[in-house]
Amino acid sequence: MKIEVEVVDLSINNLASLCRGFREAADIELRTIASADESRGAQLMVVPGVGAYGAAIGELRSRGLDRVVGDHVEAGSPLLGVCLGMQLLSGSSEESPGVPGLGFIPGAVRRLVPTGNARVPNVGWGGLEARERAEAFPTLTGTLDFYFVHSYAFVPDDDADVLVTSSFGGGQFVAGVWRDNVLGLQFHPEKSSRGGIRVLADVVAWAHG
Amino acid sequence: MAKRRVIPTLLTDGVSLVKGERFRSWRTVGSVVAAARVFSMRDVDELVLLDVRATPEGRCVSPEMVVSVAECLSVPLGVGGGVNTLPDFEATLRAGADKVVIGTIAIRDLPFVSAAAQRFGSQAVVVAVDAVDDSSNAVAIEAGSVDVDMSPIDLALKAVDAGAGEILLQTVSRDGLQGGMNLPLIEKVSASVSVPVIASSGAGTYEHLLEAFTAGADAVAAGAMFQFTEQTPRGARNYLAARGVAVRIAD
Predict the structure, then answer these.
(1) Which of B67, B74, B100 is the best residue to mutate to test the A interface, defined by the most A CB atoms within 10 Å of its own CB?
(2) pLDDT tens string A87-138
(3) Which end of chain B has less Cβ packing within 10 Å, N or C?
(4) Which domain holds residue B104?
(5) How many domains is chain B built from?
C-alpha cells in the first residue's frame, strides 16, 4: 500500500519542487490541500512555507488548515514542517510578535544575529551536526551539505527536541527539531540535490513506521 | 559562512541555448532543457538561466521556459532576462525560479530593487553588475549594447543598499572568451558589499575559478567552460577542495 502524503498549499509559494522531490524520493500518493475540505487524511502531512510567520499562520487559519493539521498531530500522525513550516511548529516568533504559532513544540523563533562573516539572510549550502537520535533519519547523520534560506531560527525550550544543528557566525542554530510525531527541517530538502531527496525518503520511511 | 558555489550559466535567446562573446555574436549551441538535465545529473550547486535577448526584444524571459528548466532541477535556480515589473518578477518565481537576476532596470529604476526585495525578500533579488571592460568606469545595460557612466562598485553598493541579496558581477570584454576573470574588480566589489558576489565572465579553467575565490568571490558562474570543455562542476569542486576552498560536500 502506498503511503498517502498531503502537502498544505497556502498559495504563497511554489510547491512544485517539494512535491516533485517527494515523488522522486518514494512511491507515494501525494496531493496538495488548499483548504480544510480538500483534506482526506494522510499518513504524512507536510507544512512548507516561504514568507513571513504571521502571514503564514493567518493563511492556515483562514483556510481552516490549522485545525486539520492540529487534528492530524493530535491523532499521533506524522507531520513535517519545512523551512518556515518548521518555525510554525513553535509557540511564537520575533518576526511576528503577538501571533501564536501552532505550538506543537514548545519554543520561540528568533532572528539570526549576524556576527563576523555571517550574513542575514543565511543563504547557501551548509553542513549538519546531528544529535544521536538523528539516526532515525540516516541521511542527516552524514557529511552532506544542505541548502538554507532563512533569517530566523527555531529555539526549542527543551534541548531534547533538537534533532540537528548547523553553524552560523561562529555559533550554531537549530536546523531540525523532532518531538514524537512532529518533525521540522529548516533547510530545503527539495533544493538540496540528491542528498535532499534522500532526506525526504528518510521522512517517508519514518512516517511509514 | 555558507559554502562557496560553482554555478553553470545557461544563456538562451528565448528559444535555444546560445553562446556569445563579449555579450554579442550569439550562436545557437543546443537545447536549454537538455543542458539543464545534464547539469542536474552532474549534481551542480545551483544553476543560472539568462535570456540574453529578452531586454533587446522588449519582452520578459518566458515562464514556460523557466518551468521546463526548474522541472529538471533539485537545486536553486536563478533566472534573468527582461524582468522589469513586479508581476513579471512574481511570475518568474512562481514558474520555479528561486531568485531573479535584474540588470538594466536596476540602473534605470533603483526603487524597483527595493520594491522587489520588500515583496519577495532580498534572497530573491540578484542585481547584475556588468562592467564594460577591465579599466572602465562604465557599466553596460540593455544586454551590453549601451554604456552608462557609473563605476561597477558604485552600482553594486547602490543595489545592495536598495535591498539586493546578491550581486552577479560580469565583465563584458571578457565574457565568453575563457581567458580568465577580472580579478581586481572581483576583489574590490567583494570587499565593498555585504552580500554574496557571484563572479562571472572569463572562466576557462579550474585555476581561473580558484583565482576568483581567492579574490573574494562567494560563487563563480561559468558558461562555456562547462559546456565546451571536459571540465565539470564536480571536477571544479574537487580541484577547489584540494586547495582549501570550502565547497559543498556532495555524494
Answers:
(1) B74
(2) 999 999 999 999 999 999 999 999 998 777 777 889 899 999 999 999 999 9
(3) C
(4) 5-242
(5) 1
Angle between helices B206-214 and B183-192 (to 10 degrees): 40
Helix (H) or strand (E) holding A35: none
User: Is the confidence at residue B228, as pLDDT, over 80?
Assistant: yes
Give pLDDT, residue B1: 65
Q: How many domains does chain A have?
A: 1
> What is the SS3 assignment for B109?
coil
- Which residues on chain B place their C-beta less than 8 Å from a C-beta of chain A? 1-3, 5, 43-45, 70-71, 73-76, 93-96, 98, 121-123, 165-166, 194-196, 218, 248-251
Residue A43 belongs to domain with CATH number: 3.40.50.880
- B215 falls in which pLDDT band (50, 70, 90)? very high
Please state, in angstroms and rounded to a whole number, the distance separating the CA atoms of residues B166 and B119. 16
B47-51 and B77-80 strand pairing? parallel
CATH number at residue B114: 3.20.20.70
